[in-house]
Design a protein that fits this description.
336 residues, alpha/beta, Rossmann fold, 7-stranded parallel sheet, two-stranded parallel ribbon, 11 helices, 37% helix, binds guanosine 5'-diphosphate-beta-L-gulose
Amino acid sequence: MIKNKKILIVGAGGFIGGHLVKRLLDDGNYIVATDIKPREYWFQEFEKAENHFSMDMKDIGNCRKVAKNIDYVFNMACNMGGMGFIENNKAECMQSVLINTNLLISCKETSVERYFFSSSACAYNKTKQQNVFIEGLRETDAYPADPEDGYGWEKLFSERMCRHFMEDYGLQVRVARYHNIYGPFGTYDGGREKAPAALCRKIIKAKKNNKNEIEVWGDGMQTRTFLYVDDCIEGTLRLFESDYSEPVNIGSDEQVSINQMIEIIEGISGVKKLNRIYQLDKPKGVRGRSSNNDLVKKILNWSYKIKLREGLKKTYNWISSEINNQGSNLSRFTKS
Ligand code: GKE
């Protein structure tokens, strides 16, 4: 367990970053939390952390300021979202390279002991994800390089930047490739939401408005593995403490189609089967993507615990309470 450390978490106002702040505070660390988002847009905020709102880490001056006297750095920051965002904002996504680059330079200049980079399954070669049911992607499947355009290229490039900072300057780096992380305190509307949250929201709204149909992007046969955020945090911290410095998948092995996930969410909500309106012109991403977890099991002796149905239930309940509280907008912010 990481304890009594001074830790910088960049992207702390975001979904995974917020959960990481909570866990590392609970474990007894001093947290410096930064995010480009203004205070009112942070998904979670913790009074015990040293919070820096509206801080753009693409600016190296900001990186240098907060990296001073820090033991560990977690870079959870990037301009991102689900397929609806990353397919239409490639230049925005690629600019996150500045965050990672400037942070690495600042860490090299100070006494930072260890650095974490949150990469993505979008770094994998697209040609290996063209079928609905595929073998889980192994870490070696990122090469030869042909990642998701924009967002995936930034992730793959930044992974390599981490590697070279370790080789050339001796900075200890750890890199996780996340496979579609979902859970409470994530984006569920506005255009950046990923499929689990989007489909929960659509089913909640259909139920609320007595509608018997939902819109689904693509034909619903696309497959993915989704990982609940608590498992993501546990896997991340175990990887961080390990001595393995190459990229590692952090994902589940419950491969489902989007149609299967919709059935699970319908079961949670108790609605009758809704008519699916398949929107074939919407962003679809790769046809099939799932995580092979052999490496993470081998090096960390760890596997995810929360099954998709259980995680979706927690997510559904949280989004449902958010939607019901609309107007007050208070339940997004936990202060502790
Ligand atoms: N977002 C969204 N919203 N996706 C939908 C919807 C909807 O209402 N209905 C169906 N889908 C389909 C998408 O067309 C896509 O085929 C699949 O669900 C998953 O979409 P997603 O959750 O937005 O994103 P992806 O898994 O394709 O890609 C995400 O991968 C992660 C890493 O595994 C990326 O967007 C990144 O957020 C992330 O790196």
